[in-house]
Design goal:
Length: 407
């Protein structure tokens, strides 16, 4: 057992890991606090995705705890449908996550290209997402940012979710709620907008919004006017298209239920919905179901499914805007114990719980999707995370044990 403090590289039993071990090849994504690169591990030639976060930007927004939560979740959770973290380390200015590089492309990229998916393809992705969310919920985690940009396909066409930057860790249970105002406008649940307090059921709302978008090409309540989009969600009934099958409509009614107490709120019940009748859940978990779409990928470092917008970016890392020395030791210490080297333990957990469907939605008989001016470009996520409250409920302040496993 070894605890690591604020060191530049991780050293354990002769193994050490730092940014020098990885050669940046291309930019593959951009986030709120830095870039994501495709990198090669110099010693093995293996390709990974490296997410880099700038400490100064995080500390300026007092969000240092969120990076600890993100790292902890990725360390703790092992699921076939959640991105694998291999290493985490830091320099004086930056935090680094080394993950599997999923080169099948964002679900966002494919959905934008094809506009909408058929029910069979949507069902397959929805089923894998249910398993991912079920695993997180069982571990006391609310994901809070389910959207097509955070869902990545692997070269076989199976998906994994990434980005735990908005997640809440620390089981709520017993009707307890959390009050952070965060999410992405197109997918955020009404109770987050109203500030009524929320729990894990916000993820099931977002799943409903995502299934809706996969089926018709735009999210429910979409408007170019963001205020209207948020207001409609708490006031209006959701429009259904008549090309949605009755089973799909039944599921969407149940998930897009405004009242979280009446929303279909647990994985077991969702899996039993008629829309999922054809899914063999055991085979799905074992990845034995043939994915409905196989991305064209020629090698582990093929980036043809990554948006050109990112690939054109220079791989040069940006330098911090402010001197880290200007931060208080408390702010700096929040980045301590960040280092992580993965082991191969698995932590896949099954589902349980109760919930009830509802029908607080409206069916509109339209065979064509309305032109809502939706270009598939989503709003930026917003975050006003109550870190004190998160800290009380979770255990993020603790130090973490590293278990070394060779790769
Ligand atoms: N493991 C990965 N493999 C391939 N691409 C990835 C991987 N992780 C992230 N990406 C790409 O980088 C993009 C940004 O990453 P991510 O969503 O983690 O950052 P973010 O949105 O800035 O998160 P945060 O909320 O922490 O600011 C993703 O949408 C995805 O396109
Ligand atoms: Mg993201």
């Amino acid at each position: 057992m070894l605890y690591h403090s604020n060191s530049k590289s991780s050293k354990h039993s002769g193994q050490s890991i730092s940014k020098e071990d990885f050669e940046p090849i291309k930019v593959i994504g951009r986030g709120g606090f830095g870039k994501v690169y495709m990198v090669k591990k110099r010693s093995s030639g293996k390709v990974y995705a490296m997410k880099v976060l700038c400490k100064d930007q995080i500390a300026q927004k007092n969000l240092s705890l969120k990076t600890q939560v993100e790292r902890e979740i990725m360390e703790k959770i092992k699921s076939p449908f959640i991105v694998n973290l291999h290493y985490a380390f830091q320099t004086a200015e930056k935090l680094y996550f080394i993950m599997d590089f999923l080169n099948g492309g964002e679900l966002f990229y494919h959905l934008r290209k094809e506009q909408r998916f058929n029910e069979q393809r949507s069902r397959f992705y929805a089923a894998q997402l249910i398993c991912a969310l079920e695993c997180l919920h069982k571990n006391g985690i609310i994901y809070r940012d389910l959207k097509p940009e955070n869902i990545l396909l692997d070269h076989d066409g199976n998906l994994r979710i990434t980005d735990f930057g908005l997640s809440k860790s620390g089981a709520l249970g017993g009707g307890n709620k959390t009050y952070s105002f965060c999410g992405t406008p197109e997918y955020v649940a009404p109770e987050i907008i109203t500030g009524a307090g929320h729990d894990q059921s916000v993820d099931w709302w977002s799943l409903g919004a995502l299934i809706y978008e996969m089926l018709c090409g735009h999210p429910p309540f979409y408007s170019q006017n963001q205020n209207k989009m948020l207001q409609d969600r708490v006031q209006k009934k959701v429009q259904m298209y008549d090309f949605f099958s009755p089973e799909a409509r039944q599921l969407l009614h149940a998930l897009l239920e405004r009242d979280p107490l009446r929303r279909l709120g647990n994985a077991t019940l969702i899996k039993q919905q008629p829309w999922f009748k054809s899914i063999d859940w055991k085979k799905l978990m074992e990845k034995k179901l043939k994915p409905p779409f196989i991305p064209k990928v020629s090698s582990p470092d093929d980036t043809s499914n990554i948006d050109q917008m990112f690939l054109r970016e220079t791989i040069k890392e940006t330098m911090p805007m402010v001197n880290m020395n200007s931060f208080t030791s408390m702010q700096k210490n929040h980045f301590g114990n960040f280092t992580y080297i993965a082991n191969k333990q698995s932590n896949i957990i099954s589902s349980s719980g109760a919930g009830s469907p509802s029908t607080d939605t409206q069916t509109v008989n339209t065979s064509q999707t309305e032109d809502k001016g939706y270009k598939g470009v989503h709003s930026k996520h917003f975050e006003d995370i109550n870190e004190e409250e998160d800290d009380e409920n979770g255990d993020h302040g603790e130090m973490f044990v590293e278990i070394v496993q060779s790769h």
